[in-house]
Task: inverse folding
């Protein structure tokens, strides 16, 4: 199931639309607080709780949470930074009949619920409040954040003030960018999306498992996907990409290199010393892993760019594009830069990682697969997607080469460039989960058939 991601402004617009259609702010707050209380009860059970309430609507949610949890028999206390400022938050405060302690005087509790600021924070939090939040959180067994941990910006993944690491974050209706963008994402813990009856659409979503096609009786090796790869100076990287393409379901993989590349399956057809020539059956051409940036690599890239084949360009292919000043690219290629390659290609840019990927895609006409702990995929038409959390063990040599092969196989299978890039990201993450700790690139390849099986 695809989960959309809304910015703070988009969420406010969605709530405003719900209010305009007849749903009151108080009703939305009651839904949010009740849904959050349900999630807290399911996760933590009847632990004594301290709910920290800010002056805005996030604090209003906190008063509802406190009331609902107490009605279920939990021992609940409330501490606040100030009196509520919005009408809806004041109404929620009025329905909480227990005492409200000043946050500076509140004692700790096994369960601490952060309902201080949430979505829309645009500046650092007052230092005394930050200190109390950190202290109370440090003494708790379970830390829960409502919508977002206080101190996190909603849209770009930045951390505006020191933030505790939460065990659970409960967000309303949709994910927000900072639930998935670093460095904010590392503070979230488990994320629960609570339905409050608001509808919205977005051009940004979380990458989900692709729906892949099982070969039928009329399929043959070319109809399943013909992947070509151009080798170069470092055959090991090329071998990883070729193996990954084959193991992801490509029916035919052909490796063009100046000499035989060892370590690839016998099913991979190798053509030593023969330059790449256009073949209409080729569904995707991958170039970059192990290519090198010398004259031979430059010639190989020029040959690829002159073809009419869908391209996946990585590693030294990207470095050569940067050296050439990012020339016009044919069709809609897929570029797969990490942060250093991205900076060389597109320079330093402002905005969130999503903003930067979208700007790069618009400028280049390519689908940008911007790798990292918070991988983002962006298309020239404005669509973008953020990867779900993946094992950090992927920070290992050769995993990017494997990703190139996976994406090429997806592109050759008939998926569009954006869809192929997203599918490749998800499959790599799933293979990494199956491979487990201390994985190496070869382990990903071994788990790719099982990852593909999850998508059939």
Result:
């Amino acid at each position: 199931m695809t989960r959309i991601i809304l910015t703070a402004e988009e969420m406010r617009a969605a709530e405003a639309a719900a209010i305009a259609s007849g749903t009151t702010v108080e009703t939305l707050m009651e839904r949010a607080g009740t849904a959050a209380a349900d999630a807290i009860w399911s996760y933590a059970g009847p632990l004594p709780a301290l709910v920290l309430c800010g002056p805005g609507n996030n604090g209003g949610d906190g008063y509802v949470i406190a009331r609902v949890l107490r009605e279920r028999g939990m021992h609940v206390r409330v501490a606040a930074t100030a009196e509520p400022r919005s009408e809806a938050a004041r109404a929620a405060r009025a329905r909480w009949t227990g005492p409200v302690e000043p946050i500076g005087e509140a004692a700790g509790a096994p369960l601490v619920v952060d309902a201080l600021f949430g979505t829309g924070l645009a500046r650092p939090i007052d230092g005394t409040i930050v200190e109390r939040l950190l202290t109370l959180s440090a003494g708790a067994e379970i830390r829960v954040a409502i919508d977002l941990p206080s101190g996190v910006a909603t849209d770009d993944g930045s951390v505006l003030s020191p933030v505790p690491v939460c065990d659970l974050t409960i967000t309303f209706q949709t994910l927000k960018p900072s639930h998935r963008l670093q460095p904010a994402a590392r503070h979230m813990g488990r994320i629960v999306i609570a339905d409050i009856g608001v509808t919205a659409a977005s051009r940004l979503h979380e990458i989900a498992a692709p729906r892949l096609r099982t070969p039928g009786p009329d399929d043959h090796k070319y109809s399943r996907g013909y992947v070509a790869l151009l080798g170069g100076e470092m055959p090991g990287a090329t071998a990883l990409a070729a193996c990954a393409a084959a193991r992801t379901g490509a029916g035919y993989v052909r490796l063009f290199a100046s000499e035989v590349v060892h370590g690839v399956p016998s099913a991979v057809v190798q053509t030593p010393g023969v330059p790449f020539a256009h073949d209409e059956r080729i569904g995707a051409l991958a170039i970059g892993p192990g290519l090198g940036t010398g004259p031979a690599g430059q010639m190989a890239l020029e040959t690829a760019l002159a073809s009419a084949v869908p391209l996946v360009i990585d590693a030294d292919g990207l470095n050569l594009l940067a050296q050439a000043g990012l020339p016009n690219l044919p069709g809609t290629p897929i570029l797969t830069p990490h942060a250093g390659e991205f900076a060389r290609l597109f320079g330093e840019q402002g905005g969130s990682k999503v903003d930067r990927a979208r700007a790069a895609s618009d400028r280049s006409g390519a689908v940008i697969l911007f790798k990292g702990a918070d991988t983002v995929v962006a298309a020239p038409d404005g669509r973008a997607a953020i990867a779900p959390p993946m094992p950090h063990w992927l920070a290992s040599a050769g995993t990017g080469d494997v990703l190139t092969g996976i994406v090429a196989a997806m592109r050759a299978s008939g998926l569009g460039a954006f869809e192929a890039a997203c599918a490749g990201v998800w499959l790599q993450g799933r293979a990494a989960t199956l491979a487990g700790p201390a994985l190496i690139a070869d382990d990903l390849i071994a788990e790719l058939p099982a990852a593909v099986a999850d998508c059939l």
Summary: Residues 257 and 309 are 18 Å apart (CA to CA). Residues 226-453 form a domain with the UDP-N-acetylmuramoyl-L-alanine:D-glutamate ligase fold (CATH 3.40.1190.20). The mean pLDDT is 95.
